[in-house]
Amino acid sequence: MWHHLKSILKQDICLNNIINIADTCINLRHWLSYFKCSSTVVISKSNKLAYDQPKSFHPIVFLNTLGKLIEKVIAERLQFLIIKNNFIHPSELSGLKFKSTTDAGVTLTHIIRSGWVKNKTTSTLAFNIAQFFPFLNRHLLTLILGKVVFFFADYLIKRKTNYT
To answer: pTM surpassing 0.85?
Structure first.
């Protein structure tokens, strides 16, 4: 559980070991199969007239706590490197620290108004990949991500979940 893990991480040697695991996973381009196992619990949504449709239920996915922590370490490191080296366009705000929905709104408004000045019609498509992550076509995502997928390709394949 998180509160157990937080107390363990107060010890520098434990924290360093977690960081070493994260570094090794990235360097070897491998995500341990132990972290690829999850449990999915399906809960019915309240106030539904009928429960014969999939949208009447809400799946909740539980991941390994240590794996989630290492994922956070890796995400922090990647985000730091991306921002430090200016690898991301200023209008890319999704999931970045120190960026807000206000920043995203201002950027979107700027893009729309710039299009209007040029007599263009603007459309926006937004989706939250996290909401359908358990059902994502991992092979297709790997192809889309291209050259930067070595670690993530291994991270995404052969994932397993137990349904309760």
So the answer is: no
